[in-house]
Amino acid sequence: MKKILITGACGQLGSELTAGLRDIFGTENVIASDISPKNPQLGSGPFERLDVMDREGMEALVDKYEIDTICHLAALLSANAEKNIELAWKLNMDGLLNVLNIAKEKKLDRVFWPSSIAVFGPDARKAKTPQASATNPSTVYGITKVAGEQWCAYYHRKFSVDVRSLRYPGLIGYKTLPGGGTTDYAVDIYHKALAGEPFSCFLEEDSALPMMYMSDAVKATIDLIQASEEHVKVRTSYNVAAISFTPAEIAESIRKQIPGFEITYEPDYRQEIASSWPDSIDDSAARSDWNWSPEYDLDRMTTDILENLPELLKTSE
Ligand code: SER
After folding, report:
1. Stretch 60-67: mean pLDDT, rounded?
2. Is the CB of 11 within 6 Å of ligand 1?
3. How many CB atoms neighbour CB 94 within 10 A?
4. Which of 12, 13, 76, 78 to mutate to test the pocket of ligand 1 (most atoms within 8 A of CB)?
5. Among 159, 162, 140, 304, CA closest to 233
6. From-to residues of CATH 3.90.25 in the chain
7. pTM of the model
C-alpha cells in the first residue's frame, strides 16, 4: 500500500478517513476524490473530481497517480436510497463493480469497501446480531450492500482481489455532516443541543441502533486495511460494533452536560428503516481475527463532541 485513492472523500466518513490515512501514508500519497467540489475538511492534499460510475475516469486516475489501493466510499445512504431506488442500485453497484474490475485488471494490492448493518432485516436476531445471521434486508440500501458483499467475496475467490469490508453501524462524527442516512439524527442532535435549541427526532424514543464514534470507525478501517492477509478470514464483510443507544439515551447523555436540553419525537418513514435493523451487533469475529476493539462509549463520545464542535463551528463561520 503506497498510493491510495479514496472515492466519496467529501462525505462524512471520507473526510476523516482521508485525514487518518494521510497521517500514516503521507499527504501526497492519499488522493481524495468526489463527484462534489473539494470540501474544506480535506485540507491541501491532492483532490480530483470523480463520478464513480465513470470507469474510464476512474482508470485514468489510477494510472495518473499509480494507485495500488482504493477505498471506495461513494454511495447513496439508506434514507436517500428509499427515495431513489434505481439510482441507489446503479450508483452503489456500478461504482463497486468499476472498482473491483480495475483492481482485477491492474492487479491492485487492496480494495476497501464499506458494508453496513443494513444487510440485516427483520428476520435476523435483534440483539447482538451474529456475523453469520441471515442477510435478508428490507431496504434498497440493504439490498445493494448484500449484493456488494457477495461481489467482494466473488472477486476475492475467483480473481484473488484482496478486498476487505466492514459492516459499519451508524457513524457519528462532528467534522462533516452526514447526508441521507437513518442514523444521521445522532449527529444533528449535538448541533441543536449546542445551539440551545430543542431537537425534533425522526425516530421513536426507544428505537435502539448500533452506532460508532468516527475516530473508532477510522481506526477499525485502518486496522483492517493494514491487517496481514492471513488474518482477514471474512471476505463478505465484518460485523463491527461499539455503542448501542436509543434517542432517549443520547438525549440523556447530552443532558449531563447541557441540563436544559429538550427532545421531542416525530417519527417519519425512517422509523420503518430503523425498525428493520439490529439493536446491537456481535463483532467477535473482528475482535479475534484482527484484534478490533473500540475506545469510545456514549458519554465519552458526547464529551468529545461537545468540547470540539463549538471550535469547528466558530472557524467555519
Ligand atoms: N448510517 C447508514 C445509514 O443510516 C447505515 O449504514 O444509512
Report:
1. 98
2. no
3. 14
4. 78
5. 162
6. 172-210+243-280+297-316
7. 0.96
